[in-house]
From TrEMBL:
Range covered out of full length: 177 to 444 of 716
Protein name: CDC48 family AAA ATPase
Entry's family note: Belongs to the AAA ATPase family. CDC48 subfamily.
Domain (AAA+ ATPase): residue spans on this chain: 52-187
Length: 268
């Protein structure tokens, strides 16, 4: 588990790769160009005289894959990965938030290429006028640290938020989080691809039509579809247990998915 600013566990990215991400093809294309390329081929940018981005914002509703993307790109380029949880750093380390931030950046600098992922960045970097003293200091610290990153591009800070408009404008200026990628609610084709990711190792009965499930799940984001798949599998297990059927050969049926659908509310 990756939390707060703890040094990451053994597998900070949980082994997540692009294969674990459904849909989002255009978004991933931008991720490759803005994050992957500078980390893996910095010389290309130098040669062209372009400064690689220091900060990229991923914004969109909860559960749409922002964290997955950050972890997948870190894995792809073999970058070290640190997560800073906005709400946690604001509460848990009262009075030491700026110091913790400094440590995270120092640590990243010793382990390049590196990605620093700020989850729910809006909770530390809301507009300064309407936030308290602590917030102001922490935003100030973050700005200083980002300005202090050299332009080599071997550290990229990714900020995730579902309230991009509430971010302090100073953070979105050039040289800071000056690139943005919107991660939206998936359409039917996206839902189909996300479902494919989550059912790829699931024994499915022949009557399961994944396309049909994709059609019937309007408003479901990736996290909802992950829950749906899990719930369908649990329903199958329960059904088999009640019927006294052998559990080793259980298959997940269309009825199991329908049962799960009736029990999960779409987030969007
Ligand atoms: P939050 O703003 O709540 O942190 P997020 O956008 O970072 O949300 P993730 O943590 O990436 O969302 O997604 C949560 C879970 O939902 C993932 O672990 C995964 O199981 C599933 N999920 C979300 N989006 C996708 C996707 N595009 N493809 C496959 N699975 C997805």
């Amino acid at each position: 588990r990756v939390t707060g600013t703890e040094p990451d566990g053994e597998r900070p990215t949980d082994g997540i790769t692009y294969e674990d991400i459904g849909g989002l093809d255009d978004e991933l294309e931008m991720v490759r160009e803005m994050i992957e390329l500078p980390l893996s081929r910095p010389e290309v940018f130098t040669r062209l005289g372009v400064e690689p981005p220091k900060g990229v914002l991923l914004h969109g509703p909860p559960g749409t894959g922002k964290t997955l993307i950050a972890k997948a790109v870190a894995n792809e380029v073999d970058a070290s990965f640190r997560t800073v949880s906005g709400p946690e750093i604001m509460s848990k380390y009262k009075g030491e938030s700026e110091e913790r931030l400094r440590e995270v950046f120092e640590d990243a600098a010793e382990n390049t290429p590196a990605i620093i992922f700020f989850d729910e960045i809006d909770s530390i970097a809301g507009k300064r006028d309407d936030s308290g003293d602590v917030e102001n200091r922490v935003v100030g610290q973050l700005l200083t640290l980002m300005d202090g990153l050299d332009a080599r591009g071997d550290i990229i800070v990714i900020g995730a938020t579902n309230r991009v408009d509430s971010l302090d404008m100073a953070l979105r200026r050039g040289g800071r989080f000056d690139r943005e990628i919107e991660i939206g609610v998936p359409g039917k084709a996206g839902r189909r691809e996300i479902l494919d990711v989550h059912i790829r190792r699931m024994p499915l009965a022949e009557d399961v039509k994944v396309d049909k499930i994709a059609s019937q799940t309007h408003g479901f984001v990736g996290a909802d579809l992950a829950s749906l798949s899990k719930e369908a599998a649990m329903t199958a297990l329960r059904r088999a247990r009640h019927a006294g059927e052998p559990l080793e050969t259980v298959e997940v049926t269309r009825a199991d998915f329908e049962h799960a659908m009736a029990n999960i509310e779409p987030s969007a």
